[in-house]
């Protein structure tokens, strides 16, 4: 699946950049990102396929078009425009997969949590009240809310432990 490949690629890029910028050990970074060290090195030494090059071009043009129309086009209109621009017939499902935000799933999960644990439990009369509540919840989420998938640590504790 293309979006899974893109997400995996982001993990590899993150490992590479953190190693280069902060000199963190690759083994630790791979472990943190839940990727095999051997697959990271395979990714480093890979050669980009024609399909990947074409996907990069489609994605670049899609993002440019999306920004040009101020985000009002969905994947169907983007597909029509890309097909015309590149003079080729791409399937709308391919464009949809490429346009999916890489971290959108995680953000949807976070916003689902914030709605359940904060927004739906209170009534807000002004924008400022809502903004203040969101700010307070984000601080709570990062500093006090224990995460099962982070071995019972808060987000900040896990980050500090990982970087230590």
UniProtKB/TrEMBL annotation:
**Superkingdom of the organism of origin:** Bacteria
- Which stretches make up the HTH-like domain? 64-100
- Please, one GO biological process term? DNA integration
Residue ranges occupied by any Integrase catalytic domain in the UniProt entry: 109-163
* InterPro entries in the record: HTH-like_dom (IPR025948), Integrase_cat-core (IPR001584), RNaseH-like_sf (IPR012337), Transposase_IS3/IS150/IS904 (IPR050900)
- Check the record and name the SUPFAM superfamilies matching this protein: Ribonuclease H-like (SSF53098)
Kindly name one Pfam family recorded for this protein. HTH_21
Task of the protein: Involved in the transposition of the insertion sequence.
PANTHER family, A to Z: INTEGRASE PROTEIN, TRANSPOSASE INSF FOR INSERTION SEQUENCE IS3B-RELATED
What name has this protein been given in UniProt?
A: Integrase catalytic domain-containing protein
């Amino acid at each position: 699946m293309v979006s899974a490949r893109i997400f995996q690629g982001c993990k590899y890029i993150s490992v590479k950049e953190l190693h280069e910028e902060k000199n963190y050990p690759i083994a630790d970074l791979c472990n943190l990102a839940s990727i095999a060290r051997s697959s990271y090195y395979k990714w480093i030494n890979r050669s980009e396929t024609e399909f990947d090059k074409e996907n990069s071009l489609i994605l670049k043009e899609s993002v440019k078009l999306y920004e040009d129309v101020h985000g009002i086009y969905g994947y169907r209109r983007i597909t029509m425009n890309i097909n015309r621009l590149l003079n080729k017939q791409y399937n709308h499902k391919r464009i949809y997969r490429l346009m999916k935000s890489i971290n959108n799933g995680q953000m949807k999960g976070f916003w689902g949590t914030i709605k359940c644990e904060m927004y739906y439990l209170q009534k807000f009369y002004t924008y400022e009240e809502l903004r203040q509540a969101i700010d307070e919840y984000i601080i709570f989420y990062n500093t006090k809310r224990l995460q099962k998938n982070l071995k019972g640590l808060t987000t900040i504790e896990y980050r500090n432990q990982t970087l230590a």
